[in-house]
Amino acid sequence: MKLSSICTSPLFCCAAEFVDRLGKFVTQKGKWNHHAVKKLAKRALKYRNELFTFVLVPRVDATNNVAERALRPGVPQRKIWRCFRTKKGAKNRDIMMSVIE
Question: N or C, fewer C-beta in 10 Å, the chain?
Fold first, then answer.
C-alpha cells in the first residue's frame, strides 16, 4: 500500500509521496550499474519507511542526539574505571546508574 494513499495532513502527504517516489526510483531496472550503488538502492528500498520515520511522524527527532546525550555521563566514569572486567560488573554499574539517574 502506498503511504500517500493514507494522507492525514498536508505535511504527511508530502513526506509520504517522497517515500513512495523514492521506492519507485530505487526499483528502476537497469538504472544502477555499480555494485555499491545497487546495494545502497536495495537497502534504501528495504528500509525506506524506517529511514524517514522522522519525516512521517512529527514528534520523532531526525537525530539520536537525545539518546547520545543520555549515555554521555557514563563515558568518563567508564574511562576512569578502565571499562569493566566482567559482564556482571557492567550489569551492576548499569543498575547503579539507573537508580542514580
Answer: N
Q: What is the Cα–Cα distance from 69 to 100, expressed in whole angstroms? A: 16
Q: Is 83 left (phi over 0), alpha (psi -120 to 50) or beta?
A: left
pTM of this structure: 0.45
Q: Could you read off the pLDDT of 15-40 as tens digits, one per residue?
A: 778 878 887 887 777 777 888 888 88
Distances (CA, A) of 69 to 42, 80, 82: 32, 19, 21
Residue 15 CB-density burial (10 A; 0-12 exposed, 13-18 middle, 19+ buried): buried
